[in-house]
Amino acid sequence: MKQIMMTIAENRQIAKDTFLMRLTGDTSSLTAPGQFLNIKLQDFFLRRPISVCDYDEDGVCIIYKVVGGGTKRMSALTAGETLDVLCGLGNGYDVFKSGERPVLIGGGVGVPPLYGLCRTLTAQGRQVQVILGFNTQAEVFFAEEFRRLGAQVYVTTADGSVGVKGFVTDVLKDLDYSYFYTCGPMPMFRAIEKIAKTSGQYSFEERMGCGFGACMGCSCKTIAGAKRICKEGPVLEREEILW
Ligand SMILES: Cc1cc2nc3c(=O)[nH]c(=O)nc-3n(C[C@H](O)[C@H](O)[C@H](O)COP(=O)(O)OP(=O)(O)OC[C@H]3O[C@@H](n4cnc5c(N)ncnc54)[C@H](O)[C@@H]3O)c2cc1C
Ligand code: FES
User: Fold this and answer.
1) How far is the CA of 207 from the centre of ligand 1 (A)?
2) Which of 16, 72, 67 is nearest to 43 (CA)?
3) What would the pLDDT profile of 36-88 be if each residue is shown by its tens digit?
């Protein structure tokens, strides 16, 4: 983990209440898809954790939804402004367990970290399937970007305005896959847990305090005792989680 200053290269709306921000700066502390940044915002005591959507040697891309004061502040920032960022937090996904035909399941703002994961897995020659779940068409983002990586993409919306009407599990139940990776809200995790046919990894976007392992504010029960989502997570293996 490194504390660095990053410069905003781009910050634009890509869907309802949803923004894409590109930041340039030192990304040497990033080692795996699924890690996250913790961003300091002026006038906010706690940093805001946001997953890395993708990165290269020059910078990172993040996608965030405006849900409160911090993300509202982020949405008003413009190119050229700088941000104090803790970079390279968390463990990220283990890409070596995927098998030949993994499925990536994202719900809402759980979709971004799956993009970098998809890029890594397709580069390894895996046949990647992706299920993206949203409430409605106006919230959908990145379906085309995943397709351009060569993935088979399914979109679901709760109101049926685009793609399959229903939830990610309505697609997952009929799919053949070797392993699953997911990120999204807890109700989606519980639904996946009921029907998943293989091992897999869950990435938790729990509320956080310190963000670097000091306060225990993000603990999750596992078979090996409590694990801190910010430090030993955000990715946990299916078999270790106590639901
Ligand atoms: C590891 C990790 C990765 C994340 N990645 C992303 C991402 O890629 N994109 C993204 O949009 N968001 C992501 N989040 C969630 C993001 O951190 C919160 O939405 C953000 O901190 C809210 O800040 P705020 O000041 O706008 O809202 P606040 O004013 O803090 O909260 C507004 C409302 O949102 C709820 N809320 C805040 N944080 C969370 C949370 N973590 N889970 C559920 N509800 C919450 C609050 O209860 C409240 O109702 C991630 C969280 C974690 C822990
Ligand atoms: S947020 Fe403090 S230990 Fe995880």
Assistant:
1) 6
2) 72
3) 999 999 999 999 999 999 999 999 999 999 999 999 999 999 999 999 999 99
| Closest approach atom of ligand 2 to CA 218 | 4
CA–CA–CA angle 38, 182, 19 (5° rounding):
45
Structure tokens at 238: 């299916």
- pTM here is 0.96
The tokens for 190 are 């519980």
4 CA to centre of ligand 2 in angstroms: 20
Distance CA 228, CA 89 (A): 12
